């Protein structure tokens, strides 16, 4: 069974900062499944095995 979570860009956060936080999260075992943009805000769907 897998765990899922949505990783969102914070308000007024630069893309570089968002990418750094995302990279730190993927180093913890999460992997990117899909991504999209919601009115200019990046949203990433992550998955990890239990």
Q: How would you characterize this protein structure?
A:
The structure is a single chain. With 50 residues, the chain is an alpha+beta fold. The protein has one domain (2-49). It is 24% helix and 48% strand. The protein contains one helix and three strands, in the order E-H-E-E. The protein has one helix at 15-26; strands at 2-8, 31-38, 41-49. The chain has a three-stranded antiparallel beta sheet, covered by helices on one side. The chain is globular, with a radius of gyration of 11 Å. The mean pLDDT is 96.
Write a brief caption for the model:
It contains one helix and three strands. It is an alpha+beta fold. Strand 2 (31-38) and strand 3 (41-49) form a beta hairpin.
Task: Show the helix and strand layout.
Layout: E1 2-8, H1 15-26, E2 31-38, E3 41-49
Antiparallel strand pairs: 1-3, 2-3
